[in-house]
Structure formats: structure tokens, C-alpha cells
Amino acid sequence: LAVAVRQRLSCRAAISVESIPAHNSAAAASAVARIPPPAAALTCDPRLAPTKSVKTYSDVAAPGEPPWCRMTASTVRAGSNCLVGIGYAAPMAWNTERTRKLLLDAAVEEFSAKGFAGARIDRIAAGAAVNKERIYQYFGNKEALFDAALLAELDRLADAVPLDGDTPDALAAYAGDVFDYYVDRPHLARLLYWEGLERGDHQVPGEQHRRDRYRKKVDAVAGTLGPGGGDDAQQVLLTVIGLASSWHVLPQLNRMILDDIDPAARRETVVECVRALAERTAARHRAGRG
To answer: Is 132 exposed, middle or buried (0-12, 13-18, 19+ CB in 10 A)?
Structure first.
């Protein structure tokens, strides 16, 4: 009987093979002893009848960074001799941050396409080419992974599209930039809509942290509305988010309402709507102060 012992380590395996008489257990032990630890070996049980069959053990690691060392070896049993394949596990550095990013990227793709309920941990792990146990190790559970994926996309948007300036034109330009961002990467918009459909009726993980983030954005929007703009900034920000994202998550309405489905035309409408709203709000505050 050929027995494969596989060590789950972050490593790559190099295989050596020696021909050893099946009855010579001392020779087999000596062969194993010559390989520095950690190691794994294939051994033959001399009590079994000889056979000419070939047994191959092949557990190929995923491309890139495997989650553990997977030994690959073959045994050939012929007559009273057998081949003993000895795999030496050479340790590799484990890149935790890279693995976490691979999982997050795969989770963003899966959750944005399937939603929370429809997403599958197995597909996320396969998409990242990482063992699914790493998901539980790094994130704990599916809900926490969804939250982490959404937060990662919020960070990505915040880094890519800052709100610069303190005028209505600056806010209008920001709305156009967010629209453009979603054209290239609609994942966040879809994640937010999925979250609203599936989890919107109760507090979601990380909600207070996200509330604090939005408060900072509200303050930035208030700065574009002039003195006293803080009174309307919350409503204005919510309007900007809805205008910039709906095109990318409601394609059926785009088809049914528009004769010409032109993202450039929609972008222009979004920008002009936000500019008009911001200018009107700022003018109202100026008139109130006067």
C-alpha cells in the first residue's frame, strides 16, 4: 500500500525518487533520514502482493502563491521492489497582505454580481486561487467579508475621486467624476444596492464607521454650498450619490425610458442637475443671510 503524507506548509516541493527493495525497511528509513526536515515520503508495505500497476500522487498547487505546500510524487511497484518518492518541503515566505487583497478582489467581483445571499465562498476562494480556509482566518465569516469588500471599494472610490474645491462647480465636477468612475468600475454601486435590498432593514456590520466617513463627506459638500450650507448638505450628498450611481445599476430603466442610451449624455445631465441644485441652495443661503 502506498501512503502519501502531505504537509500543509507555505512552501514549494522538490521531489526525489529512489528505488528500494520492498522488504528493506532500513534502507527506506535511511533514505528518508537523508532528506532534511520538513519532508514527506511515499512508502510501500512489503506485506502486499507485488503488482505492476503505477500509482501517481499529484496535488498541483495553484498558480502564484499556494496556500500550502502540495507534494507531488509517484510510486511504481514491480516485483519485490518499489520506488519511494521523497518530497522535501522548502519553506516560503507567506505574503499575508497579498493574499488578503486577492480574496477581497475576488469577493468584490462575486458579491457585486451575485449579492450577499447568492455569493458563494467556494467561488470567491477559487477566484482568488486561495484555499477557502484563509477566508475564515482573515475575515471570520461571509458577512464580515462582504463588509470588508464594500469598505475596500469605498476606499478605492475616495482615493480615486476626491471632492476638491468649495464652489457649486466643484460639486458638479465631483458628481461627473463619480459617474465616470462607475462607468469603469460599477462594483461599489452594485454592492450598495445589493446591501440595501438584502440587509437594509437592520444595522449592517461597520455601520458606525461608515456613518463617520459620510459625515466627513457631508462637511465637504457643505463647503461647496456656501455659508449655512450644512443645513442642506446631507440631502445634497444623498442626491449626488443617487444620480451618479443609478445609471450603472438600473440598466432596464435606461432601456425603457431612453431612446438613445448614451452615457455621455447621462453624465451631462447628472452634472447639470447637481450644479443647478448646488447653485440654488447656495443662493438661498445667501438670500437668507442678507
So the answer is: middle
CA of 89: how far to CAs of 15, 72, 129, 201, 252, in Å?
A: 9, 11, 20, 51, 54
Nearest Cα to Cα of residue 88 among 103, 71, 109: 71
Contacts of 104 (CB under 8 A, 6+ apart): 148, 149, 152
Angle at CA of residue 71, ends 70 and 74, nearest 5°: 145
- Count of Cβ atoms closer than 10 Å to residue 21 Cβ: 14
Q: Measure the CA–CA gap between 169 and 224, rounded to whole angstroms.
A: 8
Per-residue pLDDT of the chain (290 residues), as tens digits, is 233 333 333 333 333 333 444 444 455 445 444 444 443 443 333 333 333 333 332 333 333 433 333 333 333 333 333 333 434 333 344 578 899 999 999 999 999 999 999 999 999 999 999 999 999 999 999 999 999 999 999 999 999 999 999 999 999 999 999 999 999 999 999 999 999 999 888 888 788 989 999 999 999 999 999 888 788 999 999 999 999 999 999 999 999 999 999 999 999 999 999 999 999 999 988 887 64
Output the nine-digit C-alpha cell for 28.
527506506
Nearest to 150 by CA among 113, 189, 185: 189
* Residue count of the chain: 290
Site of grid cell 450611481 = 245
Block residue for cell numbers 456613518:
211
